[in-house]
Design brief:
This protein is α+β, with helices and mostly antiparallel strands. It has 3 helices and 7 strands; from the N terminus they run ββββββαβαα. A 5-stranded antiparallel β-sheet has the order 6-5-4-3-7, covered by helices on one side. A two-stranded antiparallel ribbon has the order 1-2. It starts with a strand and ends with a helix.
Length: 184
């Protein structure tokens, strides 16, 4: 008979989960699953936190820990530049909306070697509303100038195109007026 490490209920030897609490029956000895992770599996510091997973580092590895699972990391990566990149890419795939969770200055002994720092998360860009194109089309260079001032921080290329459109329309209207006016 196996004893559940969570509720101490007896279970058949071939059982994988406890009949009483549903907990995993790992290991042969009672309480084996409840042991803390070995010292080399413990994180020195978590660097990023998501809804379910944590990204951090231990003495010689970068790791991803699952909040729902006690023990060591669910994924380990070597403590190198490539290891950090792989860990970050795996973590950001699991947790697209994560937050940095630094806990202030870290002792020099626990600073991750070879860590290039956090890779910036790509934020969705706020686009320029297409209605801004109406200003340079209907108001010429003045509308183009207003559209450029409002949108130059969001999308500089599109703002510049709006300004050029406004100027071009103003020049075209000016030339049409000049060419249509009969010479005296």
């Amino acid at each position: 008979m196996k004893t559940c490490p969570r509720c101490s209920a007896p279970n058949p030897e071939e059982a994988i989960r406890c009949r009483s609490c549903g907990g995993a029956l790992t290991g042969d000895a009672p309480g084996e699953a409840a042991l803390p992770p070995p010292p080399d599996e413990e994180p020195l510091q978590y660097t990023h936190s998501g809804r379910r997973h944590l990204l951090g580092y231990g003495r010689d590895f970068f790791g991803i820990w699952d909040r729902a699972r006690s023990g060591g990391p669910v994924s380990r990566y070597p403590r190198t530049d490539e290891g950090w990149r792989a860990a970050w890419l795996a973590f950001s795939e699991l947790e697209p909306e994560s937050a940095e969770v630094g806990m202030g200055p870290t002792p020099a002994a626990s600073i991750p070697t070879g860590s290039p720092g956090p890779i910036p998360v790509a934020r969705p860009r706020r686009g320029v509303n297409p209605a801004w194109w109406l200003l340079p089309i209907f108001m010429g260079w003045l509308g183009g100038l207003i559209a450029w001032v409002v949108n130059r921080d969001v999308d500089p290329e599109r703002a510049r195109a709006m300004l050029v459109t406004g100027i071009a329309i103003s020049v075209a209207v000016f030339l049409l007026v000049i060419l249509r006016t009969p010479a005296a």
